[in-house]
Amino acid sequence: MEVNKNRLEAFSDAVLAIIMTIMVLDLKVPHDPTWQNYVDAYPIFASYALSFVFIGLYWSNHHHLFHEVSKVDNKILWLNMFTLFWESLIPFVTGSMGENHFSNITVAMYSIVMTFSTIAHICLVKALQNLHGTDSRFSRLFEGHFKGYATIFINTMATLLALAGFPRLAFILMCLIALAWFLPHHRISSTSARENS
């Protein structure tokens, strides 16, 4: 059964916007605002900032993905829901990591959620490639998942580092992942440039 892709996009945009709103509402207003209180709260702000960037990246990738999609079906609908499920857990693990000042298990849980968010996204892309056909323009644009697989590997390493007693190093690794995802997708960028010329 074919599904309206515009409704799927609108729903996904709304969910990601709600996730961002929940995160900012979780930031507690200091009752005794001193510079030291703000300095002491840096894990909360750092956790929020990293999650904000990740959600922005998820939204951007989702936008570029579905801009190229010509059709979706019920399987895509539920794989998209599966992806949103993992992303909807981000406020929970973000708050947990920040409130507990990067304790081992909270950073490990954060990286686990990020790992499964990436796995879900790759599954969604592969299902869309199968739906459009292996020789389609869509499949050619999104072939190869090196950055996604590298993200899964690094997030797994971050999980192990956090559990081994190096949670701040694990957090830095995840910050590097976020920076890497800012690099543009060259096939999409070049295709868009040709279309606009």
Description:
- The chain is mainly α and 197 residues long.
- The protein has one domain.
- The protein is built from 10 helices and 2 strands.
- A two-stranded antiparallel ribbon has the order 1-2.
- The radius of gyration is 18 Å and the shape is globular.
- Belongs to the TMEM175 family.
- GO terms for molecular function: potassium channel activity; proton channel activity.
- Keywords: Ion channel, Ion transport, Membrane, Potassium, Potassium channel, Potassium transport, Transmembrane, Transmembrane helix, Transport.
- It catalyses: K(+)(in) = K(+)(out).
Compute the number of strand runs: 2
- The domain tally reads 1
Low-confidence parts, pLDDT < 50 over ≥5 residues? 192-197
- Structural category: mainly alpha
Strand order of the largest sheet: 1-2
Mean pLDDT across all amino acids: 88
Number of helical regions: 10
Q: Which geometry do the CA atoms define?
A: globular
Characterize the biggest β-sheet: 2 strands, antiparallel
Integer-rounded radius of gyration = 18 Å
First CA to last CA: what distance?
36 Å
Helix coverage percent of residues?
A: over 70%
The percentage of residues in β strands lies in: under 5%
Question: What is the ordering of alpha helices and beta strands?
Answer: EHHHEHHHHHHH
Keywords for this structure?
197 residues; 2% strand; disordered C terminus; transmembrane helix; TMEM175-like; ion transport
Summarize the structure.
By secondary structure, the chain is an all-alpha fold. The chain has one domain (2-196).
